[in-house]
Specification:
This protein is α/β, with parallel strands linked by helices. Helices cover 32% and strands 19% of the residues. The two termini are 21 Å apart. Bound molecules: zinc ion.
Length: 320
Amino acid sequence: MALEASREPTEASAQLPDRIGIDLGGTKIATLKLSATGKVLYQQRQATPQASYQGILDALSKTITAAQQAAGSSQTTTIGIGTPGARSSKTGLMKNSNTTVINGQDLLGDLEKICQQPIRMANDADCFTLSEAVDGAGAGADLVFGVILGTGVGGGICLQQRIANGPNAIVGEWGHNLMPLDRLPQELASALVRGRACYCGKTDCIETWLSGPGVSRTYREITGQSATALEIFSGSVPNTYRQMIFDLYCELAALGLSTVINVIDPDCIILGGGLSNIEGLNREIVSRLSPYVFSDHINTVVAKAKHGDASGVRGAAWLW
Ligand SMILES: [Zn+2]
């Protein structure tokens, strides 16, 4: 497959612009400057100003200027930004962002005016997926589904190292599909309390079962005790409980992911977000896919993200 070659260094790379990537997160803004061949030239992190939209615009324009002025391989730079939420294709304004001060704002238009150059912007889960598809755990794969398992559950799809976009700007948002609990083995299905309300207005969304808060809730409902997902999986709770929740989580993840595999059949699924750090998660999920996937065999690769926390900012840089 010729796909991998498309981003590899060539003689002409020195003439190509450097790439600035920015990951605008809820708590931090990460900035990265890569050469055309992917070498890290500059990186910086700072807290996200929470108070105002203008504060965020100022912080972004300052970090872009600093990255542009840092030593590079080229006189010119491209700029890519990953954001929570998405830009409405109807209005051009931001929506669905948990950094709420940017909702309803023309973030892309305002930044382009300040920087006086075109900027590309994408959802942070899309940037994560792109990064892993270009030179991460999904490098060389044709169709990559990137999954965020964290405070929320999101995802993105890359086909031949390009982010898939749809008319509603929601490609990969599998976290707000229904978790089909009826498909679980009877003894498991009957042990779970259904009807989890999701902030989106529906109940039993995949996110309500596979997010960190979802794991915490499962633990509370089964054991009667409180613990965060981190405490549960880092071993701060009795081993038997930890194992029980791990097995259940992997079964639910396999069930949830089977709905994606049956539709797009990705070559690989890359796991990111805080919960992806659970040891052995990817192997256990793969071993549980078979009963739920409409196929006599499972060739899908499920892997942990290669670039971890840095995937978002790297993917933003690769938007050009
Ligand atoms: Zn939902």
